[in-house]
Amino acid sequence: MLFNLLAHLSDEFGPLNLFRYLTFRSGCAIFTSLLISFYFGPKIIRWLKSKQAEGQPIRTDGPESHLLTKKGTPTMGGVMILLAVSVSTLLWADLTNAYVWVVLIVTLGFGALGFVDDYLKLTKRNSKGLSSRKKFIGQILISLLAAYVIQLAAPPQLADQIAVPFFKNILIDAGIFYGLFVLLVMVGASNAVNLTDGLDGLAIVPIMIVAGCFALIAYLVGNAVFANYLQLHYIPGSGELAVFCAALVGASLGFLWFNAPPAQVFMGDTGSLAFGGALGAISVITKHEFVLAIIGGLFVLEAVSVIVQVVSFKTTGKRVFKMAPIHHHFEKLGWKEPTIVIRFWIIACIFALLGLSTLKLR
Q1: Domain spans of the chain?
Q2: Global pTM?
Q3: Among 91, 172, 283, 295, which is most buried by a count of CB atoms within 10 Å?
Q4: CB 239 within 8 A of CB 22
């Protein structure tokens, strides 16, 4: 909003030219969302506690320690992140940019699904929430709408193309199946992040890491000079997503203050579904869908561990892991929660470095 209001006045007042720079507005987005999180965080937590006397329902089939250590902790903390990211993005991004609105709609749409899921868990006092079928249908509708808008906004020669990392000239023409591909990316990313959100601070730091990486990717892909130098596919206007990603980094950092062990609040599906979907949408817009699978490798590992567990149990009657997702497996092995969380953060950093290396390895 400030860009749209003030940037055109830079000829009359030179310092306003700062609003034309993505780097300046991205930096401001980080601090704005961080301050919003710090200011509203305690108020939101108090409000959630007043509405959730018993806190988030704890899985009875989960690690036994959770029945003691997690009991009474409120959920729906994703509301805090959604507030900070939305306000910061609307304040600092170019609101005439279609990509910004697509990502915001995906974020708020998936967040609304997560909110309903969390609300039902609380009112019914069980860990089931919204049925998988209804949740999936909602995700499909939002993803297909986003795919349609992204195709309209993208350069015609790239509208239904899928880029392959490490190869500068290879594009896969998805044709009529492009919408299905976008659906798989967004829904897959959303649910993978959701599965990772099981321990204090476990999901929010990898979200912050991936968002930081895609802030860089969006900036490079949206800049003709850098895109040409790195032999990336230039997507005009995609650089504006760096502001959204920066806002997500700041909001995640602010949320971590309250979510660090022992957590004062849980993100809930309100946050995990929303920002998994958002990262998926950003990867689609920037033509880095496969790179998301590398940078977000931790989320992929968590999702794959669940798939392997389910397939193994249904086909052989045996479990590969003591419990899935895989972070619970290590809990069952006796690892302390902070040890698991910090080691998984390290793994997330390694995956991020591997993913960023694809920008130059062509």
Answers
A1: 2-357
A2: 0.93
A3: 295
A4: yes
